[in-house]
Protein backbone atom coordinates (compact mmCIF):
# COMPACT_ATOMS: atom_id res chain seq x y z
CA UNK A 1 0.00 0.00 0.00
CA UNK A 2 1.12 3.60 -0.30
CA UNK A 3 4.02 4.39 1.95
CA UNK A 4 5.99 7.64 2.05
CA UNK A 5 9.20 5.61 2.00
CA UNK A 6 8.22 4.14 -1.35
CA UNK A 7 7.45 7.59 -2.67
CA UNK A 8 11.05 8.48 -1.88
CA UNK A 9 13.04 5.37 -2.54
CA UNK A 10 11.51 2.99 -5.01
CA UNK A 11 12.52 3.10 -8.69
CA UNK A 12 11.18 1.03 -11.57
CA UNK A 13 13.05 -0.96 -13.79
CA UNK A 14 9.87 0.57 -14.71
CA UNK A 15 11.95 3.11 -12.75
CA UNK A 16 15.07 4.35 -10.74
CA UNK A 17 14.65 7.68 -8.66
CA UNK A 18 16.98 10.68 -9.17
CA UNK A 19 17.33 13.41 -6.55
CA UNK A 20 18.99 16.70 -7.67
CA UNK A 21 19.45 20.90 -7.25
CA UNK A 22 18.49 18.49 -6.50
CA UNK A 23 17.25 15.72 -8.89
CA UNK A 24 14.79 12.87 -8.43
CA UNK A 25 14.45 10.28 -11.20
CA UNK A 26 13.25 6.73 -11.92
CA UNK A 27 13.97 4.05 -14.53
CA UNK A 28 12.38 1.16 -16.47
CA UNK A 29 14.60 -1.68 -17.71
CA UNK A 30 14.61 -5.10 -19.36
CA UNK A 31 17.55 -7.29 -18.32
CA UNK A 32 19.88 -8.10 -21.25
CA UNK A 33 21.38 -11.52 -21.88
CA UNK A 34 25.05 -12.28 -21.19
CA UNK A 35 25.73 -12.25 -24.93
CA UNK A 36 24.01 -8.88 -25.41
CA UNK A 37 26.15 -7.34 -22.66
CA UNK A 38 29.37 -8.78 -24.05
CA UNK A 39 28.61 -7.55 -27.57
CA UNK A 40 27.21 -4.14 -26.57
CA UNK A 41 29.96 -3.07 -24.15
CA UNK A 42 32.98 -1.22 -25.58
CA UNK A 43 35.18 -2.56 -22.80
CA UNK A 44 35.01 -5.11 -19.97
CA UNK A 45 37.39 -4.73 -17.03
CA UNK A 46 38.08 -6.13 -13.58
CA UNK A 47 39.43 -3.70 -11.00
CA UNK A 48 39.24 -2.00 -7.62
CA UNK A 49 37.53 1.32 -6.83
CA UNK A 50 40.30 3.73 -5.79
CA UNK A 51 38.31 6.93 -5.15
CA UNK A 52 35.16 8.92 -5.76
CA UNK A 53 34.81 12.68 -6.33
CA UNK A 54 32.10 14.93 -7.78
CA UNK A 55 31.53 17.83 -10.17
CA UNK A 56 28.65 19.92 -11.52
CA UNK A 57 27.69 20.24 -15.20
CA UNK A 58 24.60 22.12 -16.40
CA UNK A 59 22.94 21.84 -12.97
CA UNK A 60 23.42 18.05 -12.89
CA UNK A 61 25.93 16.43 -10.51
CA UNK A 62 28.29 13.74 -11.80
CA UNK A 63 30.43 11.34 -9.79
CA UNK A 64 33.93 10.51 -11.00
CA UNK A 65 34.94 6.97 -10.02
CA UNK A 66 38.65 6.17 -10.16
CA UNK A 67 39.21 2.50 -10.91
CA UNK A 68 42.52 0.68 -10.56
CA UNK A 69 42.47 -1.70 -13.55
CA UNK A 70 43.61 -5.26 -12.81
CA UNK A 71 42.41 -7.13 -15.91
CA UNK A 72 41.09 -6.06 -19.33
CA UNK A 73 38.72 -8.65 -20.81
CA UNK A 74 37.64 -6.52 -23.79
CA UNK A 75 38.47 -3.13 -25.27
CA UNK A 76 41.34 -0.76 -25.90
CA UNK A 77 42.30 0.14 -22.34
CA UNK A 78 46.03 0.30 -21.66
CA UNK A 79 46.33 2.53 -18.56
CA UNK A 80 46.56 1.21 -15.01
CA UNK A 81 43.81 3.57 -13.84
CA UNK A 82 40.65 4.84 -15.53
CA UNK A 83 37.99 7.35 -14.41
CA UNK A 84 34.27 6.72 -14.98
CA UNK A 85 31.70 9.51 -15.24
CA UNK A 86 28.29 8.62 -13.74
CA UNK A 87 25.26 10.86 -13.02
CA UNK A 88 24.70 11.24 -9.29
CA UNK A 89 26.30 12.48 -6.08
CA UNK A 90 26.51 15.74 -4.13
CA UNK A 91 28.34 18.96 -4.97
CA UNK A 92 27.93 21.97 -2.70
CA UNK A 93 24.24 22.80 -2.50
CA UNK A 94 23.43 20.61 -5.48
CA UNK A 95 22.66 16.93 -5.53
CA UNK A 96 21.66 14.22 -7.97
CA UNK A 97 20.54 10.75 -7.00
CA UNK A 98 19.59 8.14 -9.58
CA UNK A 99 18.35 4.78 -8.38
CA UNK A 100 19.35 2.50 -11.20
CA UNK A 101 22.86 3.88 -11.48
CA UNK A 102 25.54 1.46 -10.23
CA UNK A 103 26.68 2.01 -6.63
CA UNK A 104 30.38 2.22 -5.84
CA UNK A 105 32.43 1.87 -2.65
CA UNK A 106 36.10 2.73 -2.31
CA UNK A 107 38.15 -0.47 -1.97
CA UNK A 108 35.47 -2.67 -3.58
CA UNK A 109 36.50 -5.03 -6.39
CA UNK A 110 34.21 -5.12 -9.42
CA UNK A 111 33.73 -6.39 -12.96
CA UNK A 112 32.40 -3.62 -15.20
CA UNK A 113 30.91 -3.50 -18.68
CA UNK A 114 31.69 -0.05 -20.09
CA UNK A 115 30.58 2.19 -22.92
CA UNK A 116 31.12 5.91 -23.53
CA UNK A 117 29.41 9.28 -23.46
CA UNK A 118 29.40 11.32 -26.70
CA UNK A 119 32.84 12.78 -25.82
CA UNK A 120 34.46 9.39 -25.21
CA UNK A 121 34.27 9.50 -21.40
CA UNK A 122 33.75 6.06 -19.86
CA UNK A 123 30.57 5.00 -18.03
CA UNK A 124 28.97 1.71 -17.01
CA UNK A 125 27.05 0.11 -19.87
CA UNK A 126 23.29 -0.10 -19.22
CA UNK A 127 23.59 1.47 -15.75
CA UNK A 128 23.47 -1.03 -12.85
CA UNK A 129 22.89 -3.89 -15.32
CA UNK A 130 26.56 -3.69 -16.37
CA UNK A 131 28.18 -3.92 -12.92
CA UNK A 132 29.13 -7.05 -10.94
CA UNK A 133 30.53 -7.02 -7.41
CA UNK A 134 33.34 -9.39 -6.45
CA UNK A 135 33.21 -11.00 -3.00
CA UNK A 136 34.40 -14.16 -1.26
CA UNK A 137 32.06 -17.14 -1.09
CA UNK A 138 30.46 -18.24 2.20
CA UNK A 139 33.58 -20.26 3.10
CA UNK A 140 35.98 -17.42 2.28
CA UNK A 141 37.88 -19.56 -0.23
CA UNK A 142 36.79 -18.54 -3.72
CA UNK A 143 35.83 -15.25 -5.36
CA UNK A 144 32.32 -14.90 -6.79
CA UNK A 145 30.69 -12.24 -8.95
CA UNK A 146 27.18 -10.93 -8.19
CA UNK A 147 25.23 -8.58 -10.41
CA UNK A 148 24.54 -5.18 -8.89
CA UNK A 149 20.79 -5.00 -8.21
CA UNK A 150 20.50 -1.22 -8.17
CA UNK A 151 18.77 0.61 -5.35
CA UNK A 152 15.37 -1.01 -4.69
CA UNK A 153 15.06 -1.92 -8.37
CA UNK A 154 12.98 -4.79 -9.76
CA UNK A 155 14.27 -6.19 -13.06
CA UNK A 156 12.14 -7.76 -15.79
CA UNK A 157 13.77 -10.81 -17.34
CA UNK A 158 13.51 -11.70 -21.01
CA UNK A 159 12.00 -15.09 -21.65
CA UNK A 160 14.41 -17.61 -23.14
CA UNK A 161 17.60 -15.66 -22.42
CA UNK A 162 20.63 -16.52 -20.27
CA UNK A 163 21.57 -13.71 -17.91
CA UNK A 164 24.02 -14.49 -15.11
CA UNK A 165 23.24 -13.17 -11.64
CA UNK A 166 25.83 -15.03 -9.52
CA UNK A 167 28.83 -17.14 -10.56
CA UNK A 168 32.38 -17.95 -9.49
CA UNK A 169 34.84 -15.37 -10.83
CA UNK A 170 36.82 -18.01 -12.72
CA UNK A 171 33.78 -19.50 -14.46
CA UNK A 172 32.39 -16.06 -15.25
CA UNK A 173 35.71 -14.95 -16.77
CA UNK A 174 35.75 -18.11 -18.91
CA UNK A 175 32.13 -17.56 -19.99
CA UNK A 176 32.88 -14.00 -21.11
CA UNK A 177 35.96 -15.22 -23.00
CA UNK A 178 33.88 -17.86 -24.80
CA UNK A 179 31.15 -15.36 -25.72
CA UNK A 180 33.74 -12.93 -27.06
CA UNK A 181 35.22 -15.66 -29.27
CA UNK A 182 31.86 -16.82 -30.59
CA UNK A 183 30.56 -13.27 -31.16
CA UNK A 184 33.80 -11.64 -32.35
CA UNK A 185 32.43 -10.42 -35.70
CA UNK A 186 29.08 -9.28 -34.22
CA UNK A 187 30.93 -7.32 -31.52
CA UNK A 188 33.17 -5.63 -34.09
CA UNK A 189 30.22 -4.71 -36.28
CA UNK A 190 28.25 -3.36 -33.32
CA UNK A 191 31.23 -1.27 -32.18
CA UNK A 192 31.55 0.31 -35.61
CA UNK A 193 27.82 0.94 -36.03
CA UNK A 194 27.27 2.35 -32.53
CA UNK A 195 30.49 4.27 -31.91
CA UNK A 196 32.48 4.55 -35.13
CA UNK A 197 35.76 6.36 -34.45
CA UNK A 198 34.71 7.69 -31.01
CA UNK A 199 37.70 7.26 -28.66
CA UNK A 200 37.85 5.46 -25.31
CA UNK A 201 39.24 8.10 -22.97
CA UNK A 202 41.01 6.92 -19.79
CA UNK A 203 39.43 9.88 -17.96
CA UNK A 204 36.85 12.59 -18.83
CA UNK A 205 38.33 15.77 -20.38
CA UNK A 206 37.16 17.90 -17.45
CA UNK A 207 38.68 15.62 -14.81
CA UNK A 208 42.10 16.57 -13.45
CA UNK A 209 42.28 15.39 -9.88
CA UNK A 210 39.97 14.91 -6.91
CA UNK A 211 41.31 18.12 -5.35
CA UNK A 212 39.79 20.17 -8.18
CA UNK A 213 36.31 18.76 -7.66
CA UNK A 214 33.89 18.90 -4.77
CA UNK A 215 34.54 17.19 -1.51
CA UNK A 216 34.66 13.42 -1.88
CA UNK A 217 31.09 12.29 -1.31
CA UNK A 218 29.90 8.70 -1.84
CA UNK A 219 27.37 8.55 -4.63
CA UNK A 220 25.01 6.44 -2.54
CA UNK A 221 24.23 7.62 0.98
CA UNK A 222 21.46 6.83 3.42
CA UNK A 223 18.52 8.60 1.81
CA UNK A 224 16.14 8.05 4.72
CA UNK A 225 16.89 11.61 5.88
CA UNK A 226 16.35 13.11 2.41
CA UNK A 227 13.03 14.88 1.88
CA UNK A 228 10.97 14.07 -1.20
CA UNK A 229 10.20 16.80 -3.73
CA UNK A 230 6.65 17.72 -4.74
CA UNK A 231 5.00 20.54 -6.65
CA UNK A 232 3.64 23.48 -4.64
CA UNK A 233 1.54 25.01 -7.47
CA UNK A 234 -1.55 22.83 -6.80
CA UNK A 235 -1.71 24.25 -3.27
CA UNK A 236 -2.73 27.61 -4.76
CA UNK A 237 -5.00 26.10 -7.43
CA UNK A 238 -2.44 26.53 -10.22
CA UNK A 239 -1.95 23.95 -12.95
CA UNK A 240 1.29 22.21 -13.88
CA UNK A 241 2.20 22.72 -17.53
CA UNK A 242 4.00 19.90 -19.35
CA UNK A 243 5.41 20.08 -22.86
CA UNK A 244 6.26 17.35 -25.38
CA UNK A 245 9.20 17.19 -27.76
CA UNK A 246 7.87 14.86 -30.49
CA UNK A 247 11.22 14.46 -32.26
CA UNK A 248 12.07 10.76 -32.44
CA UNK A 249 8.66 9.55 -31.25
CA UNK A 250 7.52 6.25 -32.74
CA UNK A 251 4.89 6.63 -35.43
CA UNK A 252 1.37 6.75 -34.08
CA UNK A 253 -0.56 8.76 -31.52
CA UNK A 254 2.16 8.86 -28.84
CA UNK A 255 1.60 12.55 -28.10
CA UNK A 256 -2.08 11.80 -27.48
CA UNK A 257 -1.06 8.87 -25.26
CA UNK A 258 1.16 11.13 -23.11
CA UNK A 259 -1.51 13.84 -22.86
CA UNK A 260 -3.96 11.15 -21.75
CA UNK A 261 -1.49 10.03 -19.05
CA UNK A 262 -1.39 13.60 -17.70
CA UNK A 263 -5.16 13.77 -17.76
CA UNK A 264 -5.50 10.56 -15.72
CA UNK A 265 -3.52 12.04 -12.82
CA UNK A 266 -5.23 15.45 -13.10
CA UNK A 267 -8.72 13.97 -12.85
CA UNK A 268 -8.16 12.11 -9.57
CA UNK A 269 -11.03 13.00 -7.25
CA UNK A 270 -9.89 14.33 -3.88
CA UNK A 271 -6.59 15.66 -5.26
CA UNK A 272 -5.59 19.27 -5.89
CA UNK A 273 -3.39 18.28 -8.83
CA UNK A 274 -4.13 19.84 -12.21
CA UNK A 275 -2.29 19.40 -15.51
CA UNK A 276 -2.32 21.25 -18.80
CA UNK A 277 -0.55 20.35 -22.05
CA UNK A 278 1.51 23.36 -23.11
CA UNK A 279 2.26 22.17 -26.64
CA UNK A 280 5.51 21.21 -28.33
CA UNK A 281 9.01 22.22 -27.25
CA UNK A 282 12.61 21.58 -28.29
CA UNK A 283 13.82 20.70 -24.79
CA UNK A 284 14.78 17.10 -24.11
CA UNK A 285 16.55 14.58 -21.91
CA UNK A 286 18.10 15.72 -18.64
CA UNK A 287 19.01 19.16 -19.97
CA UNK A 288 17.31 21.61 -17.62
CA UNK A 289 15.64 24.57 -19.34
CA UNK A 290 12.81 25.48 -16.97
CA UNK A 291 10.12 23.50 -18.82
CA UNK A 292 8.56 20.22 -17.72
CA UNK A 293 9.14 18.03 -20.76
CA UNK A 294 8.47 14.56 -22.19
CA UNK A 295 10.93 13.59 -24.94
CA UNK A 296 11.94 10.64 -27.13
CA UNK A 297 15.14 11.59 -28.97
CA UNK A 298 17.94 10.88 -26.43
CA UNK A 299 19.47 14.26 -27.30
CA UNK A 300 21.87 14.16 -24.34
CA UNK A 301 23.11 10.60 -25.02
CA UNK A 302 21.66 9.51 -21.69
CA UNK A 303 20.74 6.12 -23.11
CA UNK A 304 23.30 3.87 -24.77
CA UNK A 305 22.68 1.42 -27.59
CA UNK A 306 22.57 -2.26 -26.81
CA UNK A 307 22.79 -5.45 -28.79
CA UNK A 308 19.26 -6.77 -28.89
CA UNK A 309 16.17 -5.16 -27.44
CA UNK A 310 17.03 -4.86 -23.75
CA UNK A 311 18.24 -2.35 -21.21
CA UNK A 312 16.70 0.87 -19.89
CA UNK A 313 13.29 1.67 -21.46
CA UNK A 314 12.23 5.00 -19.95
CA UNK A 315 13.04 7.37 -17.12
CA UNK A 316 10.92 10.01 -15.40
CA UNK A 317 11.11 12.27 -12.38
CA UNK A 318 11.79 15.69 -10.90
CA UNK A 319 15.15 16.72 -12.31
CA UNK A 320 15.44 19.86 -10.23
CA UNK A 321 14.13 20.95 -6.87
CA UNK A 322 15.28 23.27 -4.12
CA UNK A 323 15.75 22.23 -0.48
CA UNK A 324 15.62 25.90 0.58
CA UNK A 325 11.83 25.87 0.30
CA UNK A 326 9.81 23.20 2.09
CA UNK A 327 6.24 22.48 3.11
CA UNK A 328 4.56 19.98 5.43
CA UNK A 329 1.69 18.00 3.88
CA UNK A 330 -0.08 15.25 5.81
CA UNK A 331 2.74 15.23 8.36
CA UNK A 332 5.52 14.87 5.77
CA UNK A 333 8.04 17.53 4.76
CA UNK A 334 8.56 18.09 1.04
CA UNK A 335 11.00 20.24 -0.94
CA UNK A 336 9.73 22.48 -3.74
CA UNK A 337 9.90 20.88 -7.21
CA UNK A 338 11.14 23.13 -10.01
CA UNK A 339 11.36 21.00 -13.13
CA UNK A 340 10.15 17.55 -14.19
CA UNK A 341 11.22 15.32 -17.07
CA UNK A 342 10.20 12.05 -18.74
CA UNK A 343 12.50 10.53 -21.36
CA UNK A 344 11.86 7.43 -23.47
CA UNK A 345 14.80 5.38 -24.70
CA UNK A 346 14.62 5.26 -28.53
CA UNK A 347 16.62 2.00 -28.48
CA UNK A 348 13.97 0.35 -26.29
CA UNK A 349 10.87 1.18 -28.34
CA UNK A 350 10.78 -2.40 -29.62
CA UNK A 351 9.31 -3.43 -26.25
CA UNK A 352 6.19 -1.34 -26.76
CA UNK A 353 3.69 -3.57 -28.57
CA UNK A 354 0.91 -1.02 -28.89
CA UNK A 355 -0.46 2.30 -27.65
CA UNK A 356 -1.75 0.61 -24.48
CA UNK A 357 1.81 -0.27 -23.40
CA UNK A 358 2.98 3.28 -24.10
CA UNK A 359 0.18 4.68 -21.97
CA UNK A 360 1.01 2.48 -18.99
CA UNK A 361 4.67 3.53 -19.10
CA UNK A 362 3.72 7.20 -19.59
CA UNK A 363 1.33 7.16 -16.62
CA UNK A 364 3.99 5.50 -14.47
CA UNK A 365 6.83 7.85 -15.44
CA UNK A 366 4.66 10.97 -15.11
CA UNK A 367 3.79 9.69 -11.63
CA UNK A 368 7.51 9.89 -10.86
CA UNK A 369 7.60 13.40 -12.32
CA UNK A 370 4.97 14.29 -9.72
CA UNK A 371 7.20 12.97 -6.93
CA UNK A 372 5.70 9.50 -6.46
CA UNK A 373 8.01 6.52 -6.09
CA UNK A 374 7.06 2.86 -6.23
CA UNK A 375 4.08 1.40 -4.46
CA UNK A 376 4.42 -1.74 -2.35
CA UNK A 377 1.19 -2.96 -3.97
CA UNK A 378 2.24 -5.10 -6.95
CA UNK A 379 -1.07 -4.39 -8.69
CA UNK A 380 -0.62 -0.61 -8.65
CA UNK A 381 0.43 1.16 -11.83
CA UNK A 382 3.16 2.77 -9.69
CA UNK A 383 4.49 -0.68 -8.71
CA UNK A 384 8.11 -1.40 -9.57
CA UNK A 385 7.36 -3.54 -12.61
CA UNK A 386 5.48 -2.93 -15.85
CA UNK A 387 2.32 -5.03 -16.12
CA UNK A 388 1.43 -4.75 -19.82
CA UNK A 389 -1.91 -6.37 -18.95
CA UNK A 390 -4.14 -4.06 -21.02
CA UNK A 391 -4.64 -1.64 -18.14
CA UNK A 392 -3.39 1.13 -20.48
CA UNK A 393 -3.69 4.46 -18.61
CA UNK A 394 -5.75 3.20 -15.67
CA UNK A 395 -4.79 4.00 -12.07
CA UNK A 396 -5.35 1.40 -9.35
CA UNK A 397 -6.44 1.78 -5.74
CA UNK A 398 -3.03 2.45 -4.23
CA UNK A 399 -2.18 4.96 -6.95
CA UNK A 400 -5.19 7.02 -5.89
CA UNK A 401 -4.17 6.77 -2.22
CA UNK A 402 -0.65 7.95 -3.05
CA UNK A 403 -1.53 10.98 -5.16
CA UNK A 404 -4.20 12.11 -2.68
CA UNK A 405 -1.72 11.84 0.18
CA UNK A 406 0.85 13.99 -1.64
CA UNK A 407 -1.67 16.42 -3.21
CA UNK A 408 -4.75 16.50 -0.98
CA UNK A 409 -7.60 18.68 -2.18
CA UNK A 410 -7.57 20.59 1.13
CA UNK A 411 -3.88 21.56 1.03
CA UNK A 412 -3.37 25.33 1.09
CA UNK A 413 -5.50 27.19 -1.43
CA UNK A 414 -7.47 30.40 -1.06
CA UNK A 415 -11.07 29.15 -1.14
CA UNK A 416 -11.50 29.95 -4.85
CA UNK A 417 -12.09 26.91 -7.05
CA UNK A 418 -13.27 26.12 -10.57
CA UNK A 419 -16.30 23.86 -10.26
CA UNK A 420 -16.70 22.91 -13.93
CA UNK A 421 -15.73 19.32 -14.82
CA UNK A 422 -12.40 19.05 -16.67
CA UNK A 423 -14.06 17.24 -19.60
CA UNK A 424 -16.23 19.88 -21.24
CA UNK A 425 -19.35 18.82 -23.16
CA UNK A 426 -18.46 17.80 -26.71
CA UNK A 427 -19.37 20.04 -29.61
CA UNK A 428 -20.09 19.34 -33.25
CA UNK A 429 -18.30 20.94 -36.15
CA UNK A 430 -20.28 23.79 -37.73
CA UNK A 431 -22.92 23.69 -35.00
CA UNK A 432 -23.62 26.26 -32.29
CA UNK A 433 -21.90 25.63 -28.94
CA UNK A 434 -22.56 27.16 -25.50
CA UNK A 435 -21.21 26.11 -22.09
CA UNK A 436 -21.05 28.20 -18.91
CA UNK A 437 -17.92 27.88 -16.72
CA UNK A 438 -18.61 27.88 -12.98
CA UNK A 439 -16.52 28.93 -9.96
CA UNK A 440 -17.04 28.69 -6.21
CA UNK A 441 -15.64 30.56 -3.22
CA UNK A 442 -13.40 33.60 -3.23
CA UNK A 443 -14.66 37.17 -3.22
CA UNK A 444 -16.95 36.92 -6.25
CA UNK A 445 -16.79 39.16 -9.32
CA UNK A 446 -15.18 36.42 -11.39
CA UNK A 447 -13.20 37.12 -14.55
CA UNK A 448 -12.27 34.24 -16.89
CA UNK A 449 -9.41 33.74 -19.35
CA UNK A 450 -7.43 31.06 -21.21
CA UNK A 451 -3.84 30.92 -19.90
CA UNK A 452 -2.38 28.16 -22.11
CA UNK A 453 -3.38 25.70 -24.81
CA UNK A 454 -6.06 26.66 -27.29
CA UNK A 455 -9.79 26.57 -27.92
CA UNK A 456 -11.26 25.12 -31.11
CA UNK A 457 -11.31 27.65 -33.94
CA UNK A 458 -14.63 29.49 -33.81
CA UNK A 459 -15.04 29.15 -30.01
CA UNK A 460 -14.19 31.91 -27.52
CA UNK A 461 -14.19 32.24 -23.73
CA UNK A 462 -15.89 35.43 -22.60
CA UNK A 463 -14.83 37.22 -19.43
CA UNK A 464 -18.11 36.13 -17.82
CA UNK A 465 -17.12 32.46 -18.28
CA UNK A 466 -19.34 31.67 -21.26
CA UNK A 467 -17.77 29.38 -23.86
CA UNK A 468 -19.62 30.07 -27.09
CA UNK A 469 -19.39 30.09 -30.86
CA UNK A 470 -19.44 27.67 -33.77
CA UNK A 471 -16.40 25.34 -34.00
CA UNK A 472 -15.03 24.98 -37.53
CA UNK A 473 -12.51 22.21 -36.87
CA UNK A 474 -12.94 18.73 -35.39
CA UNK A 475 -10.52 17.27 -32.84
CA UNK A 476 -9.58 17.27 -29.15
CA UNK A 477 -8.41 20.62 -27.78
CA UNK A 478 -6.52 20.93 -24.46
CA UNK A 479 -6.29 24.19 -22.58
CA UNK A 480 -5.86 25.70 -19.12
CA UNK A 481 -8.46 28.18 -17.87
CA UNK A 482 -8.04 30.73 -15.09
CA UNK A 483 -10.64 32.49 -12.99
CA UNK A 484 -9.77 35.61 -10.95
CA UNK A 485 -12.00 37.08 -8.25
CA UNK A 486 -12.42 40.75 -7.29
CA UNK A 487 -9.72 40.37 -4.59
CA UNK A 488 -7.13 39.26 -7.16
CA UNK A 489 -7.07 35.61 -6.09
CA UNK A 490 -6.82 33.07 -8.91
CA UNK A 491 -7.61 29.42 -9.60
CA UNK A 492 -6.57 27.43 -12.67
CA UNK A 493 -7.66 24.07 -14.09
CA UNK A 494 -7.01 22.04 -17.25
CA UNK A 495 -9.82 21.27 -19.67
CA UNK A 496 -10.41 19.17 -22.75
CA UNK A 497 -13.00 20.12 -25.36
CA UNK A 498 -13.81 17.62 -28.09
CA UNK A 499 -15.36 18.63 -31.38
CA UNK A 500 -16.93 15.82 -33.38
CA UNK A 501 -17.48 15.45 -37.08
CA UNK A 502 -20.60 13.76 -38.35
CA UNK A 503 -20.59 10.11 -37.28
CA UNK A 504 -19.23 8.31 -40.33
CA UNK A 505 -17.01 5.28 -40.68
CA UNK A 506 -13.44 5.54 -41.93
CA UNK A 507 -12.84 4.31 -45.47
CA UNK A 508 -9.64 3.05 -47.12
CA UNK A 509 -9.35 3.75 -50.84
CA UNK A 510 -5.73 2.78 -51.45
CA UNK A 511 -2.63 1.45 -49.70
CA UNK A 512 0.97 1.22 -50.87
CA UNK A 513 4.28 -0.04 -49.48
CA UNK A 514 6.98 2.51 -50.33
CA UNK A 515 10.43 3.01 -48.86
CA UNK A 516 9.62 0.48 -46.12
CA UNK A 517 6.57 2.48 -45.03
CA UNK A 518 2.88 1.63 -45.43
CA UNK A 519 0.97 4.61 -46.83
CA UNK A 520 -2.81 4.46 -46.60
CA UNK A 521 -5.20 6.83 -48.38
CA UNK A 522 -8.87 7.27 -47.57
CA UNK A 523 -11.27 9.43 -45.60
CA UNK A 524 -12.77 10.05 -42.17
CA UNK A 525 -9.73 8.80 -40.20
CA UNK A 526 -9.40 10.17 -36.64
CA UNK A 527 -6.00 11.10 -35.20
CA UNK A 528 -6.55 8.86 -32.18
CA UNK A 529 -7.60 5.89 -34.30
CA UNK A 530 -5.67 2.63 -34.68
CA UNK A 531 -4.15 1.01 -37.76
CA UNK A 532 -4.15 -2.79 -38.04
CA UNK A 533 -2.02 -4.82 -40.43
CA UNK A 534 -2.77 -8.53 -40.48
CA UNK A 535 -4.65 -8.10 -37.19
CA UNK A 536 -1.69 -6.46 -35.37
CA UNK A 537 -1.64 -2.88 -34.08
CA UNK A 538 0.91 -0.80 -35.97
CA UNK A 539 2.12 2.63 -34.82
CA UNK A 540 1.31 5.24 -37.45
CA UNK A 541 0.73 8.94 -38.00
CA UNK A 542 -2.99 9.32 -38.69
CA UNK A 543 -4.56 12.32 -40.40
CA UNK A 544 -8.08 12.77 -41.74
CA UNK A 545 -7.28 11.42 -45.21
CA UNK A 546 -3.89 9.73 -44.89
CA UNK A 547 -2.02 7.28 -42.67
CA UNK A 548 1.75 6.70 -42.69
CA UNK A 549 3.61 4.09 -40.63
CA UNK A 550 7.21 4.18 -39.54
CA UNK A 551 9.70 2.01 -41.38
CA UNK A 552 8.88 -1.69 -41.05
CA UNK A 553 9.45 -5.00 -42.74
CA UNK A 554 6.64 -6.67 -44.68
CA UNK A 555 7.04 -10.04 -46.32
CA UNK A 556 6.00 -10.48 -49.91
CA UNK A 557 2.38 -11.47 -50.34
CA UNK A 558 -1.05 -10.09 -49.48
CA UNK A 559 -1.59 -8.17 -46.22
CA UNK A 560 -4.95 -7.11 -44.77
CA UNK A 561 -5.23 -3.50 -43.59
CA UNK A 562 -8.03 -1.77 -41.72
CA UNK A 563 -8.55 1.21 -39.40
CA UNK A 564 -10.59 1.58 -36.21
CA UNK A 565 -11.49 5.15 -35.23
CA UNK A 566 -11.58 6.28 -31.61
CA UNK A 567 -15.39 5.94 -31.61
CA UNK A 568 -15.07 2.24 -32.49
CA UNK A 569 -16.13 2.57 -36.13
CA UNK A 570 -14.16 0.32 -38.45
CA UNK A 571 -13.10 0.82 -42.04
CA UNK A 572 -13.35 -1.63 -44.89
CA UNK A 573 -10.67 -4.35 -45.15
CA UNK A 574 -8.11 -3.48 -47.81
CA UNK A 575 -5.74 -6.02 -49.35
CA UNK A 576 -2.18 -4.73 -49.84
CA UNK A 577 -0.04 -6.75 -52.23
CA UNK A 578 3.69 -6.59 -51.51
CA UNK A 579 5.87 -7.98 -54.33
Structure notes:
This protein is mainly beta and 579 residues long. It folds into 4 domains: 4-9 and 230-406, Collagenase (Catalytic Domain) (3-Layer(aba) Sandwich), CATH 3.40.390; 23-223, OB fold (Dihydrolipoamide Acetyltransferase, E2P) (Beta Barrel), CATH 2.40.50.120; 417-500, Immunoglobulin-like (Sandwich), CATH 2.60.40; 507-578, Immunoglobulins (Immunoglobulin-like), CATH 2.60.40.10. The protein has 7 helices and 34 strands. Strands 1, 5, 6, 12, 13, 14, 15, 16 and 17 form a 9-stranded mixed β-sheet that branches. Strands 2, 3, 4, 7, 8, 9, 10 and 11 form an 8-stranded antiparallel β-sheet that branches. Strands 19-26-25-22 form a 4-stranded mixed β-sheet, with no helix packed on it. β16 (311-329) and β17 form a beta hairpin. α5 (254-266) packs across α6 (355-369). 45% of the residues are buried. Residues 1-26, 151-157 and 210-225 have low confidence and may be disordered.
Annotation keywords:
34 strands; Collagenase (Catalytic Domain); OB fold (Dihydrolipoamide Acetyltransferase, E2P); disordered N terminus; Immunoglobulin-like; 579 residues; mainly beta; 8-stranded antiparallel β-sheet
Amino acid sequence: MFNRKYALLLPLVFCAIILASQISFATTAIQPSDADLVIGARAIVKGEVAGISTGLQNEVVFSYIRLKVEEVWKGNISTGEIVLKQPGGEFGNHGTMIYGMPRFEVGKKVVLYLDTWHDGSLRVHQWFLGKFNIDKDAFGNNEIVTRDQGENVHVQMQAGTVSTQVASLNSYRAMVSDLLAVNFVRAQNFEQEAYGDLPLLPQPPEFDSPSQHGQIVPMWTNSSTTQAPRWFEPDSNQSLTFYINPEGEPAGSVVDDVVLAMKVWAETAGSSLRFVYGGETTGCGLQADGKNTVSFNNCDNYFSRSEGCAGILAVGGIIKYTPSQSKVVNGETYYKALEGRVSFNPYGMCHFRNACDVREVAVHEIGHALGLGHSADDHATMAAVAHFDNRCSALMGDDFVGIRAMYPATTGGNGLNIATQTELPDGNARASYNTQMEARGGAGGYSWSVVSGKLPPGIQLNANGLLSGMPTEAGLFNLSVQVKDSAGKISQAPFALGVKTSAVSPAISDAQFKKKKVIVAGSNFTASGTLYIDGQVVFATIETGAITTGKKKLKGGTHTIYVVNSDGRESNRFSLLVP
